[in-house]
Amino acid sequence: MKKTLFDKVWDSHVVSSVKNGPDILYIDKHLIHEVTSPQAFNVLEEKGIPLFRPNQVVATADHNVPTENQHLPIQDALSRKQVSQLTKNCEEYGVNLFGLGHPYQGIVHVIGPELGVTQPGMTMVCGDSHTSTHGAFGTIAFGIGTSQVAQVFASQCVLVDKPKSMCVVVSGKLHPAVEPKDVVLYVIAKLGTDAGTGYFVEFAGNVFEEMSMEGRMTVCNMSIEMGARGGMIAPDQTTFDYVSGREFAPKGEALEAKIAHWKSLPTDDGAAFDAEHHFDAADIRPMITYGTNPGMGIKIADKIPSSDDASFVKSLEYMGLEADTYLLDMPISHVFIGSCTNSRIEDFRAAAAHIKGRQKSPDVAALIVPGSQQVAKQIVTEGLDKIFESAGFELRQPGCSACLAMNDDKIPAGAYCVSTSNRNFEGRQGQGARTLLASPVTAAAAAVAGKIVDVSQA
Amino acid sequence: MVPLTVENVDTDQIIPARFLKATDRKGFGENLFRDWRFTTDGQTKEDFPLNQGQYKGAILVAGNNFGCGSSREHAAWALADYGFKVVISSFFADIFKGNALNNGILPIQVSPEDLQRIFAAIEQDTSVEAIVDLENQKLLIDAAGIAVSFEINDYKKMCMINGYDDIDYLISQKEAIEAFEQKRA
Ligand code: SF4
To answer: B90: which chain A residues are within 8 Å (Cβ-Cβ)?
Structure first.
């Protein structure tokens, strides 16, 4: 039978199926962080059971950590407690922790791939919806709730109904100013935020084949924003080259054997999906969102649409925007370049290429937050820090930061922030904050101009 | 029943991130829909349904695509802690649905037309009652002329009715899981 990439990986991980119920899916790698794991460790404690496979768990502290003075004790008492609880739990249960101060610390979805923990054909879970990021490697990776984190601790498995499969094909030639973030914002704007619910999405077509691994991660990261459990891209030479030589990746003959297996994973010709969508790459332009869900996106040169739907009206009201008007040239006061969507070295290279030789607008506060300690180090090695700092951008230490505003990095109420993160929900970046999602280049350009610009028209 | 007609209610609204610093699962109900219930300086927003005394009961009726966004189970804990046992909507986000079921909250999906009918019935009479029959998978709201079946898989239904937990089931499968690991090695 002809199988999809998703079917191949899923089927090879099913331990058994409950009659008229879910599958028992075996999990190869379990990533954890400080916010969604403490209650799961409590379950182990209450039940008096061990962590079944500690070697398959990798931990870091990211959601709640400060992005300044990371060498000092965390100021906020609750955050400090959460982070120290993680350290204690990892020690007690023998989990490998890349905590604050560790050279591998960073956002969980940035460090997994960067360390070679993430590999094609695996199943991965984490108590975080953007676990979908790892799908860029041809991995089945999805977010789970804390009860399920406890289940994986106890059994290295989850009970899940097998999702349906969807294929999103983008083919043709992209405009040179279009970034991977624009591609995924375009797809979500076209399909809506619930189109993927119940599905696992495979992204296919020459646009994704030609993308770097980092671009593919940006795309898969946001697959959850169209409601999908996760996104995947078939592993190819680009994938194998990225994985080879990374700290926790297989080496030598073991790697060769793995690669031979990984080459068998792509979807068979003629395999059927439950749903398919096709888009023409040439139609895509730099994108930005105007509303309070990631599906409310437009080409920067286009007008905000109009609708009398109550939720739409409420959303524009929150954003302080009007239907049938342009976002182009609208002044903004904040820029955030970071988050697991866009905080890898290529993102900062792209931003720096635009910023070089320019100055940030005096009316904008611009924050640059690398995704990991290793990315932070690379920024310095390549001299990008000089470009950012001399242009007036503030370069911080790694963490989730203003993506969800759990720490001190908050956008003030009413302020407009062009952000490279993945969610523009009400209050996501701080109570009353107004988020406009865009690519790192568009964000950098907005910081320089002090207003929204269309880099494809430069 | 408490009506919340807004669509695409995301988990950041159900429980904002700044309340996720706890290391246990108690007390989240207090901050359920925090920024919709209260202003930044802590004043109660009178027009929010949860703040309007006429709406009572353990059933939340919500607009399409409820629970999208983050995987935080804190959203389900907050709803459960506040006292909700059932959420009715025309569409639920996947992860939320799983989290709800794992915390004794039953998500009931109805057609968009039925959802509008329920909203209208509540508007007519704020004390309208609903009968949820989990055993037979039936939702009955006489006042709205609603008598529909809802979906839930047999396994989950059995768990809810008996108060079983997935974790106990998985632990009971340890031998099969170990055999699976052996086979793959
Ligand atoms: S950067 Fe944002 S989206 Fe990514 S894991 Fe952190 S909080 Fe979640």
So the answer is: none
Which residues, at least 6 apart from B148, have a Cβ–Cβ distance to it below 8 Å? Answer: B110, B111, B114, B138, B139
* C-beta atoms surrounding A171 within 10 Å: 15
Superfamily of domain A164-235+261-283: Aconitase, Domain 2 (3.40.1060.10)
**Residue A339 Cα, ligand 1 centroid: separation in angstroms?**
6
Q: What is the pLDDT along chain A (458 residues), one digit of tens a residue?
A: 899 999 999 999 999 999 888 999 999 999 999 999 999 999 999 999 999 999 999 999 999 999 999 999 999 999 999 999 999 999 999 999 999 999 999 999 999 999 999 999 999 999 999 999 999 999 999 999 999 999 999 999 999 999 999 999 999 999 999 999 999 999 999 999 999 999 999 999 999 999 999 999 999 999 999 999 999 999 999 999 999 999 999 999 999 999 999 999 999 999 999 999 999 999 999 999 999 999 999 999 999 999 999 999 999 999 999 999 999 999 999 999 999 999 999 999 999 999 999 999 999 999 999 999 999 999 999 999 999 999 999 999 999 999 999 989 999 999 999 999 999 999 999 999 999 999 999 999 999 999 999 999 97
Q: Is domain A287-457 annotated with CATH 3.40.50.720?
A: no
Distance in Å, CA A74 to ligand 1 centroid: 19
Distance (Å) from the C-alpha of residue A156 to the closest C-alpha of chain B?
8
Interchain contact, A293 vs B72, CB within 8 Å:
no
Domain boundaries along the sequence of chain A? 5-160, 164-235+261-283, 287-457
Same fold, A5-160 and A287-457: yes
Is 3.40.630.30 the CATH number for A5-160? no
CB A296 within 8 Å of CB A278: no
Token pair 């590999």 is found at: A119
